[in-house]
Each structure stands twice: as structure tokens, then as C-alpha cells.
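Standup notes
- DV: blocked on the single-chain target, sequence here:
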Amino acid sequence: MAEITTGSFTRSDRFGDSRDPTFPEFFIEPVQDELASNRQGYPIYRDEERVKIHMPGNSLSVPVERVNDEHRARWPEHYRRFRAGLEMAHDGTPLEMWPAITSKSQVYFLKHHSIHTVEQMAGVTDYDLTKLGMGGRSLRSLAKAFLDSAERNALTKSIMAENDRVTTELLDARRQIEELKGLMNGMQAQIEGLSNRPNVVANHVPGASDPFAQLAKAQGAQLAPPTDPLASFASREPA
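- DV (later): unblocked, structure below
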């Protein structure tokens, strides 16, 4: 017969209610099958799933029930890990890590009353609180204050992280603006340089670039004006 490790769990959401302080302990229990035993003539056993339902602060009343669909829906993750054979520790801050606990005897005393974490101590009901003696109410107040402080610290850290992110984005945006401004200044300088260049068309003098005139000027000679080849015929008188 396969042995399945039992699991104990702290917080549980009863159909979405996170205020439910109870936690389950699933386990396997061998149960005699009367019908099969009578038929075979000797004891026949079968495994059945059981669950102990713990209430922090109440070690006297721990009901044990056969696992049904309601239990599976109430603690789905706990049941899944139980079926996988995994041992689960109590969720939350262990009592050993809580500065309000000053001795191991306090830890043992609270664990005897099914209280293993600060979260469970904060969830002890007024009725079960009377079983913890005179210091029970004080411990519950300290547990609630501890959790409230942790929540505020987490919120503060979240706000600081968000501020750091926004600051980083602003600095990056400012850097991009400065780079864009430098680029625009460079483009403006180029545009102004082009506008100050002399206008080649407006300053052009006709004939100034005539290669024949430039050659004659360089040689110190003056070109004779061209003659009309028909002029000699025009000066002759008819016979």
C-alpha cells in the first residue's frame, strides 16, 4: 500500500473568503471494507482520504472528515499537493522568526494550540483566545500590528520603486530632448550656411567666361573683327 505524505497548511480561502483562519491536514486512512471482508472471509481494507480541519487556537476540537468535493474546492492547491505526495509547510511568517516570541516554550505552547505562524495568531477568534491564557489577547494584537506594519512597508517600497521608475523615465526623456535639440541646432546651422552663399546666377556676367576672350587677353593680342565675304561684291559697279 502506497504511503502518501500528509500535508498541513495555514491560510485557506473558503470559497474566496481570505478571512477563513482554518487550515487542512489531508491524509490517507485505511478503512475496512465490510462487504469485501465478509465475502472473502478475512479483513479487506481500502484507502480513504481524510482531512483534519484545524482552527488556530483550538486544539481540543479538530474535526476529521472524509474528503469530499467541498473540501477539494475549499483548498484546491493544498489538495493538489497532497495528492502529489508533497509535504507543505505552513504559509506565512513562522513563529520562530517573530520578534514578539521570546522563548521556545512559547512556540511549543502556541503550536500545541495549532498556531504555527504570525498570520494564524492574528486570526485566532475571541472564543479560542481564552484558551491561550492571559497573554493571548496581547499576542494577537502584536500579530495584527506586525502584519499591518509589514503591509505598510510593502506599500512604501512599492511607492518608492514606482518613484524610481518615473524618475528614470524623466531623465531618459530629458536626455532624448537634449539630443534632439543638438540635432536641430546642427540642421539650423546648415540651413543658415546655405542661405549665406553667393547666388551664382545673379552674379553671372555675360561673356565673362568666353574662352576666346580670355585667351586673347592672356596673349596681349586683340582679335580683328570678322569681315563680310560678300562686301567686295557689293562695292563693284556694273559695266
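- Follow-up: Confidence is low (pLDDT under 50) at residues 1-17.
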